[in-house]
Design a protein that fits this description.
Oligomer: single chain
Largest sheet: 3 strands, antiparallel
Radius of gyration: 21 Å
Helix content: 40-55%
Structural class: mainly alpha
Number of strands: 5
Length: 219
């Protein structure tokens, strides 16, 4: 009778939220087998979560809640392509059918998604990845999400769920660093740049939805 082991995985974009996995420990004659099974299960869960987040971003787009950031234009173009693909089919009579169709169309896009704390990275072209350029590894097959400068990367987007992260960052930078009279001039300059970047991202997230709403009223 196999033993069962329960593990917890915390998704980096949802601090404090854990998912539980229970899986059988394989016989000792298969060393490493349980690690491989667990890794496969985690990968499958991550793929499903990325698809869910991609579909959610598409549904936001349909409601006029647009992404911001340098990668927003390409992402919106992808969503418009989904619209065209759906228009080529007769509308389904059951909502769940439409949902599954959207998931199938967005599955490829979801595979390019890498989730950062304050942004999404749609890693479709390594040559465009700013993190790889900065690291000197332009041929890598995954982004260096810890080095992401999402305010500058052409494949990064910001969404409403990222707003609080940047608002908190701006508030902390202003209170802890810019409010410190003993801060050196170079340190103050770096802190000011970080504050300006965070506030700009917050403003862009807010403006993306406002501009689309105004365009809808004008139409």
């Amino acid at each position: 009778m196999p033993f069962y082991r329960t593990s917890e995985v915390s998704w980096s974009h949802k601090p404090g939220v854990f998912r539980h996995f229970q899986y059988p420990t394989p016989p000792l004659a298969r060393p490493g087998g349980h690690q491989a099974a667990f890794s496969a299960e985690v990968a499958a869960e991550e793929e499903a979560e990325h698809l869910r987040l991609t579909v959610a971003a598409y549904e936001d787009y349909q409601r006029g809640i647009l992404p911001s950031g340098h990668g927003a234009r390409d992402l919106i173009a992808s969503f418009k392509a989904v619209d065209r693909a759906l228009d080529r089919h007769d509308p389904g009579s059951v909502t769940v059918i439409d949902d599954r169709r959207v998931e199938r169309i967005l599955k490829a896009k979801a595979k390019s998604l890498h989730v950062g704390v304050g942004n999404y990275c749609w890693f479709s072209d390594p040559a465009k990845a700013l993190c790889l350029k900065l690291a000197g590894t332009p041929d890598a097959d995954e982004p260096l999400i810890g080095m992401c400068d999402s305010a500058r990367c052409p494949q990064a987007t910001h969404h409403p769920q990222h707003r609080q992260v940047w608002a908190d960052h701006a508030e902390t930078t202003q209170g802890v660093f810019l409010g410190n009279p003993q801060l050196s001039k170079p340190e103050r300059a770096r802190a000011q740049a970080a504050f300006d970047r965070a506030t700009r991202i917050v403003t862009e997230i807010d403006a993306a939805s406002i501009e689309d709403e105004e365009a809808s009223h004008a139409g």
